Amino acid sequence: MSITKKATVFAVGLGLVTLSACGSSDSGSDSQQSGGKTVTLVSHNSWAVSKNVIAAFEKQSGYKVKVLEDGDAGQAVNKAILTKDNPQGDVFFGVDNTLLSRALDNDLFQSYEAKGSDLVRPEYQVEQDQHRVTPIDTGDICVNYDKAYFSEHKLTPPTSYDDLIKPSYKNLLVTENASTSSPGLGFLLGTAAKYGDDGWQDYWKKLKANGVKVVDGWEQAYNEEFSGSAGGKKAKADRPLVVSYASSPPAEVIYGDPKPTTAPTGVAEGTCFRQVEYAGLLSNAGNAAGGKALLDFLLTKTFQEDMPLNMFVYPVREGAQVPEEFTKYGPQAKDPETMDPAKIADNRDDWVKSWTSLVLK
């Protein structure tokens, strides 16, 4: 849910195992040169999987997995579209519901119904007539808050979008650029869903007047600007509110050093927008057979249950379990804002253009 990265800081600094990314632009030809035994996954920087899980797939399938990470979700999708005639790989992972129409309108994917698609929960199913993408994970984009800051200042943390424009929270929030960042765009769409076509711009005028800070991407916002994160504490960050994910608090617990007994951060549940991430077989993939095998693997119970503690997202497969830390410290929002993908497709670019003019200029 690009998901975009929710846990890059934890993956890099605290021992999560990721596959090495290769920057070659001829990944498809590499698949062919190796006799079709290499399958290349193109992703945003959020990809992470346990070493033993990917090793099991490689042993069972006979394919060697190569990963090419291409920046934030928006950047990765745009690059994949530009290179679709000579794709960098075979499978693309990480296009979410905020950007899905852009990928589909540009014919980024070819049809393939992955094994296990019938086990994906109904609310995450899309494209059931053409099967150009497969739902892989889900998560909630939400405002997180630094519990220590609000306790020390004897201030009640915000719980809703309306709270964020109150004088009590002036100069406290940092968010990501909606034109370059998946969570930034998700937050914008959440406000559009909440306040409607005629009300979201007025809301952002008030949010800007209340001192919201905008940075390029999630890693900068969360690890450098947010005072509640491990990285933010080291950077002496001064913003106790950040647009992040409902799964960020359990990450702070799981990878805390020393490990805290309770989450140092919380979630403003009235500010959440539901994100779903998809994967698809790239058009003109050099190793379509390997790509199909990899897509099948992404829906297995083994991979789905491996995701939460690696990518800090929720599985979409029926019956897949999540770790106790998720249910305790980062449960999914009970009533998140959502938006029909068709409405996102019709309005996203105009909304982002208007947002940019309103907030950044």
Task: List the main descriptive attributes of the protein structure presented here.
17 helices, 39% helix, 10-stranded mixed sheet, globular, alpha/beta, disordered N terminus
Characterization of the model:
This protein has 17 helices and ten strands. The protein has helices spanning 8-13, 27-33, 51-61, 73-82, 100-105, 147-152, 161-164, 182-195, 200-209, 218-225, 230-234, 248-254, 288-298, 301-306, 308-311, 324-329, 341-360, and strands spanning 38-43, 64-69, 91-96, 109-110, 134-146, 173-176, 213-215, 241-245, 265-282, 314-315. Strands 1, 2, 3, 4, 5, 6, 7, 8, 9 and 10 form a ten-stranded mixed sheet that branches. The protein starts with 7 loop residues before the first helix and ends with a helix. The model is unreliable at 1-35 (pLDDT under 50).
SSE topology string: HHEHEHEHEEHHEHHEHHEHEHHHEHH
Number of strands: 10
Evaluate the radius of gyration: 20 Å
Overall mean pLDDT: 89
What would the principal axes of the Cα set say about the shape?
globular
The portion of residues assigned to helices is 25-40%
**Sheet with the most strands, sense and barrel status:** 10 strands, mixed
Instruction: Flag low-confidence runs.
Output: 1-35
Which percent range describes the beta-strand content?
15-25%
Number of DSSP helices? 17
Measured between the Cα atoms of the first and last residue, the distance is: 29 Å
Kindly name the structural category. alpha/beta
What can be said about this structure in brief?
The chain has 361 residues and is α/β, with parallel strands linked by helices. 39% of the residues lie in helices and 18% in strands.
